[in-house]
Amino acid sequence: MTRFAIAALLALSVAGNAVAQLLDFSAAELRAILRHGPWPAPWSPDPSNRVSGNPEAIAFGEHLFFEPRLSPSGKVLCATCHAPFRGWQDARARAFGLAEADRNTQSLFNVRYNRWFGWDGAGDSLWAQSIRPILDAREMGGSQAAAAALVRGDPELACRYRKAFGEPPPAADEAVFAGIGKALAAFQETIVSGRSPFDDFRDALSRNDFSSMEKYPEAAQRGLRIFVGRGNCSACHFGPGFTNGEFHDTGVPFFVRGGVDPGRHGGLKKLQANAFNLLGAHNDDRSGTSAVKTRQVALEHRNFGEFKVPSLRSVAQTAPYMHNGSLATLADVVRHYSEINPDRLHSDGESLLRPLRLSAGEAADLAAFLESLTESSSALPPRRPDSSCR
Amino acid sequence: MLACGAFAGIAPACELPPGTRVESQRLALSYQTVPGKIAVGEQFVLEFSACAKEGTAFSGRVTLDAHMPAHRHGMNYRPSVKPVGEGRFRSEGWLFHMPGRWEFIFDLGGERLTHSVRIE
Q1: ipTM of this model?
Q2: Using CB atoms, which residue from A235, A295, A298 is nearest to B99?
Q3: Which of A159, A128, A130 is nearest to A59 (CA)?
């Protein structure tokens, strides 16, 4: 669609209804906008997880997600920090399981599309990432042996394991623990955010449906123009998921109690040392393709202080923001990028982030656009009744 | 950046398979990606064949890299490179994580060949 064609529609209105003026998006802007959809994006099961997409594994994983006994305290479950009614996070600045951690809890929305997991990308699969909190002393404080013994010894859990994997829980703790992670991953793969007002606008643009386009507020349109234009936000918040899945230093302080958070640099070291990474024995992908990223990812000095580019889908449901939860609102996030100090970035000469110097109105527009990325209604099916396993 | 110290034998006539052809003063190469269209944030494989223009056998170190000149950064991955015979190479682990202009850099025995692509 050309700028001319869009401009010709500016005066369109529907009598009696409040309609927005349509901005005269350029051809380049339209291309950039269309890249952010359609939603939901295509997805295929994870080849590294043999029960990915398996309904029995999804049910087992959902059961485990709400299982407090995975923590020896009996008081912390996955859903403690990833609360479904809070956008699958906890609304706290920093996670709190058995004690306060150093980082913000990331939402589980759309986690199935990720290449790396966690703010530092220490996980290269959703299943490996899912068992990490069970072991963390500040989160669930458990152990491989205790979790495996729980699944082997509890008739309900053992039955669910057998139905998901087609065999009883094995004797080796590590194998059962990997299975727990794979079932948890199968469940989390179902957590997909619903369509947003932006998606309706984007799809209306793609099919020249002008009456639908006009339902999208002008402030959000102006914010969208900044997002794909001079803000250059879509360089990193790319594609239907609004993330390129990689890591950047965005000038957020990384000092924590007792030291610094090394971010991606530390994450890559943890990845290399993790027996559950995709180069290990628990990867079910015999083709080896899924492990290429783990084998070839580069550990560089510039990774220090880099953190994952989060998805912006349903972002209004997932405050507070940034890896340390230091920004309370979307307006604060916009202000951060508007006033960012390039001297604070450990960019090794990279030239990407510059202060946007937005006016108050522009900042409000960009925040309005971000708000419009939040689902209009949930795409998730209601939770299944938790009937016993036979 | 990645490097391979393998020796690659070259066909005398310097005939290259179909692909994107890149030349320097002494060398020529032809490369293709798998899949053919590079998508932002998606891994791809690079396959290429190289030879000396005069048809003499090429030997030496192969180093491959890519960067975004406008952003002054490279990739977050160091792809592998493996000789697969007759001057052909296969390289895995490529991923361009931003849209825009990327430049492939082929260093063949110290001779630098570059090619720019625009990724949408």
Answers
A1: 0.88
A2: A235
A3: A159
d(CA A355, CA A335): 9
Cα distance between residue A324 and residue A326, in whole Å:
5
Q: How many domains does chain B have?
A: 1
A65 SS3 class: helix
Could you read off the pLDDT of B30-82 as tens digits, one per residue?
999 999 999 999 999 999 999 988 876 566 789 999 999 988 889 999 999 99
Domain ranges of chain A: 55-188
Question: Are B95 and B75 within 8 A, CB to CB?
Answer: yes
Does the beta-carbon distance from B76 to A297 stay under 8 Å? yes
CATH, range A55-188? 1.10.760.10
The residue behind tokens 């036979």 is: A390
Q: Which residues of B touch A345 (CB under 8 A)?
A: none
Q: What is the CATH number of the domain that holds B104?
A: 2.60.40.10
| Residue type, position A56, single letter | E
Q: What pTM was estimated for this model as a whole?
A: 0.91
* Among the listed residues A76, A120, A115, the one whose alpha carbon sits nearest the alpha carbon of residue A256: A120
Helix, coil or strand: residue A166: coil
